[in-house]
Design a protein that fits this description.
Elements: E1 2-4, H1 7-21, E2 30-33, H2 35-38, E3 43-47, H3 63-80, E4 85-88, H4 91-104, E5 108-111, H5 123-130, E6 133-136, H6 139-148, E7 152-154, H7 159-162, H8 169-175, E8 183-188, H9 193-214, E9 217-223, H10 229-236, E10 243-247, H11 250-256, E11 259-263, H12 266-273, E12 278-282, H13 286-295, H14 303-308, E13 315-317, H15 323-335, H16 337-351, H17 359-372
Parallel strand pairs: 1-2, 1-4, 2-3, 4-5, 5-6, 6-7, 8-9, 8-11, 9-10, 11-12, 12-13
Length: about 375
């Protein structure tokens, strides 16, 4: 059984399935996932949009649905008796399911650690109790778990595989009808519908102000498959700066742009690995933000800044996420060559901290070792 609760988790799930099938072609892999996992022969009980929520406070209204899903997956563990339960991030739901699996004797493997280094470090005790193997993407996570006595393996970050090949930005621009001689800014408001609705209006309002200061610009928006393209088009059609919508091709659109405005999350790390100057934005309800800041263990929300242990990429969070501040930083990203060069140089240094390519294959071997009860290598 495999459970992913986010679009990024769906990508991780699909990668894990591909690597597992290299040695286990007929494996029956089922649970909760998205379209990418389906394309790899995944058998769904639920699609991942049944789990998606946004914010600590906002999740309350979704609790009945989430608990119904949790109870059904607990039943599935009992009925199907899988060889292992593989959980991908999404700790609020997944650690509850892990606790039940532990009681039933199903080995629990967690891929992509909850951000305990950022907040809710108390989850370490739960993880130690209910997770048999933790597979992590960042080197500092391995140290945290080793110190806590959790069986852990660092495999590097899968995004390194995505960024291996160079993409012809000119060809991408031509494909989407964009000009090579006009500045191109990418806006990525988030993969969850709630994130998009909270972030996109401010980003669209900033575009004409950016253009007023820089001269003519183009804008491109990669649309995650979890979002409604028609809903986004209805919003972008009102913009005085034309916005080109590109379904699902995030890496390609980021490679083609001159600078980007990106919602915090996996997309920000992808942008960093593409070595594109960018700014991180994020906004939730005021109460959610206050709770998160109270529980937070780190100064930054952007993974690239956490890795660097300093602010390489500016963060516009909560009340700082305004049209004027987005405009100010976007103009600097597009026009200040020294600023751009410094950021790109620092992003290159950070990229070296993510290990080597082949994370999914390493994770698959780790999972096989757990199931065969052999020591991990």
């Amino acid at each position: 059984m495999m459970v992913a609760g986010e679009v990024s988790g769906d990508a991780h799930g699909a990668g894990l399935i591909r690597s597992l099938r290299k040695n286990h072609d007929s494996a029956d892999i089922f649970g909760i996932g998205g379209k990418q996992m389906l394309r790899e022969g995944f058998r769904p009980y639920f699609m991942l949009d049944s789990l998606q929520t946004h914010g600590l406070v906002e999740v309350v209204q979704h609790l009945p649905r989430l608990y119904q899903t949790l109870w059904r997956m607990r039943q599935a563990l009992t009925e199907e008796k899988p060889d292992a339960l593989i959980l991908i991030d999404y700790p609020g739901f997944n650690l509850k399911l892990a606790a039940y699996a532990k009681k039933t004797g199903v080995p629990v493997i967690f891929f992509n650690s909850p951000q305990i280094w950022a907040w809710r470090k108390g989850r370490l005790n739960t993880i130690k109790r209910v997770v048999d193997k933790m597979i992590v993407l960042f080197p500092f996570e391995e140290k945290i778990y080793q110190q806590a006595g959790v069986d852990v393996k660092w495999v590097g970050h899968p995004l390194l595989d995505e960024m291996q090949s160079e993409i012809d930005s000119g060809a991408i621009r031509k494909q989407f009808g964009l000009q090579n001689n006009i500045l191109l800014i990418a806006i990525a408001p988030g993969s969850r519908p709630s994130e998009m609705r909270r972030h996109l209006p401010t980003l669209l309002e900033a575009l004409p102000q950016i253009q007023q200061k820089t001269g003519e610009i183009q804008c491109i928006l990669p649309v995650a498959e979890s979002l409604d393209l028609k809903e986004i088009r209805k919003l972008t059609d009102t913009s005085s700066v034309p916005v080109t919508l590109v379904p699902e091709q995030f890496i390609e659109t980021i490679q083609a742009c001159d600078a980007a405005i990106v919602a915090s999350g996996t997309a920000s790390l992808q942008t960093a690995l593409a070595l594109k100057p960018f700014v991180i934005v994020y906004q939730v309800s005021p109460l959610t933000y206050r709770i998160a800041r109270y529980l937070s263990e780190t100064e930054y929300v952007g993974l690239v800044n956490v890795l660097a242990e300093k602010e390489i990429v500016p963060e516009l969070l909560q009340n700082n996420f305004t049209v004027s501040k987005v405009t100010e930083i976007a103009v600097r990203l597009l026009q200040d060559e020294d600023y751009r060069a410094t950021m790109i140089s620092q992003l290159k240094s950070t990229r070296t901290k993510l290990g080597e390519a082949g994370a999914y294959d390493k994770a698959a071997r780790c999972i096989e070792n757990v199931l065969s009860r052999e020591p991990a290598i």
